Amino acid sequence: MKSEGCRTLSTQHPGPGSVSVPQYETVDPYTLTEDDLKIVNHNIRQELLMNTNSEELQRISTYYFDGQGKSIRPMIVLLMARALNYHMNGKSGLSQSQLSMAMVSEMIHTASLVHDDVIDSSDFRRGKPSINAIWSQKKVAMAGDFIIAVVSKILANMKNCDVTSTIAQALSDLVQGEFMQLGAKETENERFAHYLTKTYRKTASLMANSLKSSALLAGADDQLCDVAFQYGRNIGLAFQLVDDLLDFISSSETMGKPTATDLKLGLATAPVLFACEKFPVLNPMIMRRFQEPGDVEKAFELVHKSQGLEQTRFLAKKHCDEAIRLANTIADSPYQKALIVVSDFVITRMK
Amino acid sequence: MASTPAFRLFCLGRQYSRSYEPISWLCAVRNNGVYSQERKISSVAPAKHNQRPDWNRAVSEAEKIVGYPTSFLSLRWLLSDEIANVALHLRKLVGSNHPLLKTAKSLIYNGRNNMQAWGLIVLLISKAAGHCKVDDIEEDKAAGVLYSQRALAEVTEMIRTSHLVHKGLVNIYPNDYDSAELSDMSFGNKIALLSGDYLLTTSCIELAALRNNEVIDLIASAVRDQALSEFVGNRDKQNNPLPGNSEMSSAEEDWTRRNVLSAGSLLGNACEGTLHLAGHSKIVQEKGHKFGKHLALAWQACLELEPFTNLHYTPNSTFNLTSAPVMFHLERDPSLYTEINKGADSIYDVDYAKVHSWRRPDSPCQHHPCHGATLIKTTSTLLSSTWLNPPSRKEAGAMCT
């Protein structure tokens, strides 16, 4: 059924992602930021090791900083920083604090993964045993707190109060997003808004606020900071929408986790919420968080029968287009082009 | 008490608690066996009334001085949507064995004993030292402290609470629970983790609003140290500390290191931070730091001494195996390790009566009261040499003794 769904969709849609890639074929965001990212990863490990003598805590806290992650957050922070530096001064050189900002964005993301692992029962993440499979819950929780403490120290040393406030907001959003996921049962009308707010807080806020910080550190004015923020917000929302979509169509190899994970966790994501319009029978299932036998399979089937996947794809595409529009308001440079390619990446993942 | 609605527990408990007569109320709670997270393993027979009245009096007097009942310190964050949400979820845990409920209870019902006092001390130090700011807008006239100092006092409470809540997670091992229990435990862990994270990130917002990078660095260091404290020395399967396997040479160093990380760092840095906010010199800030750190240590020492000075030791009640009396004793007489090592899997496998029976007139643990007294003396000396505002100083002093 999984592969069937996948095939049907890919024949229906030749893939909106293929539209703009050729134009920028020469610009590869990863190549552009490769050297920077190595420094970022190395510095993160150094900071964490420096802050504790406990070998165990060192091992736990650096466990996911093995250079194997996608590093999407630090990558766009670095790209935006260089693009804006060029936009404002004609020079794309990176400041030390902007490099630190890239570290901060990756560390916060990883800290949230570490805490996710405390309550997740999955044994694998990023192709290796997940942290909770090796260490006890209490120690993993403490390691997450430790990473956040080190992040706060890095922020304090940046000595930019606006940046500190911006990132504090992102942290708070992450936790509030988790609370929203615990799910007060809303009415059908509120549900989609609830889902979007949750998605913003859990995923997009960190990107948006990291990029805004990177702009603040470039000395950008309010308007330019907002361009950076909105770019991050749109990329973040698109990114999550695509993730939610892939949960229904991709096989476990490409995602690194089994499909329909969200349904099994009782979460109603965009495809289900859209499908609800055509199949109201999904409503009670959402309310009981797909807990009755057969719920997950039935919901999975109905989503594929509805326009839910298509509508999700359309929404993601809209956010990507908006991100591209924003990126185009920044002066031409390889880094600015790379920001556009990144949004294409997001769409390409959907194919 | 377990059936008390969780919402009231979380949001209104502190208000209600003020309407009770503190001492008898506290003793009633203690008789019911409710102890804070830290005291869980140091529970002894309920204290006699005449042994603890000073504490409650000290707190009420101190509250009068700063013009601010400590119960309100954390009200702002207790009344948020997120916490109301947590409270709803807590209900589901009533009747389960998850310690989160116990943690929650201890935050409310045993609040006067050792939780709330931290913010209060920060306020007392703030008031005792006065401030060098001229801007009237920043000062809360009624309390005589700056708004920023009050925020820092709140943050101090939140960060300490966050750590206690995270410490209250349960380590789950395969085959420990049947499936119903397992789902209770996992759910409890989830709520505990999120609640702690909520307090931590709310602290971040509050701190960022102070727009003072030095203070942020101080508090961030304290958060780091709290986390580090959970990695010191031997641990049983629930991460409860056991003595031994420390790189420290002496018991005193070992004990001090553990407790500076878990407590001294936060109170020390918070006191230093509040003096920084008031515009005091580096020297005064440094004294504030020492005061907070030593007060936290002295406090801890007093708590740890209690099971050994109290005449009514309840058979089989437990106490902290890394408490100063036990550690000092082990230094003199390592043979006690044979008993303590039985706790390698769970500290509850240790025969506490046996460990406790080492307490004899000629026993080395008598060394400890002197040590506690030294700590208290250091603290009081620091205090008297530093500040001039007499009533606050007196109260802070009273809280030391």
Automatic annotation (TrEMBL), chain A:
One GO MF term: all-trans-decaprenyl-diphosphate synthase activity
Cofactor: Mg(2+)
Catalytic reactions of this protein: 6 isopentenyl diphosphate + (2E,6E)-farnesyl diphosphate = all-trans-nonaprenyl diphosphate + 6 diphosphate; 7 isopentenyl diphosphate + (2E,6E)-farnesyl diphosphate = all-trans-decaprenyl diphosphate + 7 diphosphate
Any one GO BP annotation for this protein: ubiquinone biosynthetic process
This protein's GO CC annotations: heterotetrameric polyprenyl diphosphate synthase complex
EC annotation from Swiss-Prot or TrEMBL: 2.5.1.91
This protein's UniProt keywords: Isoprene biosynthesis, Lipid metabolism, Magnesium, Metal-binding, Mitochondrion, Transferase
Tree of life domain: Eukaryota
Compartments it resides in: Mitochondrion
InterPro entries on file: Isoprenoid_synthase_dom_sf, Polyprenyl_synt, Polyprenyl_synt_CS
Chain positions covered by the region annotation Disordered: 1-23
Summary of the function given for this chain in its UniProt record: Heterotetrameric enzyme that catalyzes the condensation of farnesyl diphosphate (FPP), which acts as a primer, and isopentenyl diphosphate (IPP) to produce prenyl diphosphates of varying chain lengths and participates in the determination of the side chain of ubiquinone. Supplies nona and decaprenyl diphosphate, the precursors for the side chain of the isoprenoid quinones ubiquinone-9 (Q9)and ubiquinone-10 (Q10) respectively. The enzyme adds isopentenyl diphosphate molecules sequentially to farnesyl diphosphate with trans stereochemistry.
Subunit structure: Heterotetramer composed of 2 PDSS1/DPS1 and 2 PDSS2/DLP1 subunits.
Family the UniProt entry places it in: Belongs to the FPP/GGPP synthase family.
Name listed for the protein in its UniProt record: All trans-polyprenyl-diphosphate synthase PDSS1
Organism, scientific name: Apolygus lucorum
Species classification: Eukaryota, Metazoa, Ecdysozoa, Arthropoda, Hexapoda
UniProtKB/TrEMBL annotation, chain B:
Gene Ontology cellular-component terms listed: mitochondrion; transferase complex
InterPro entries: Isoprenoid_synthase_dom_sf (IPR008949), Polyprenyl_synt (IPR000092)
Top-level division of the source organism's lineage: Eukaryota
Region described as Disordered: spans on this chain: 234-254
Compositional bias segments (type: Polar residues): 239-249
Family from the record: Belongs to the FPP/GGPP synthase family.
Protein name: Decaprenyl-diphosphate synthase subunit 2
Species in which this protein is naturally found: Apolygus lucorum
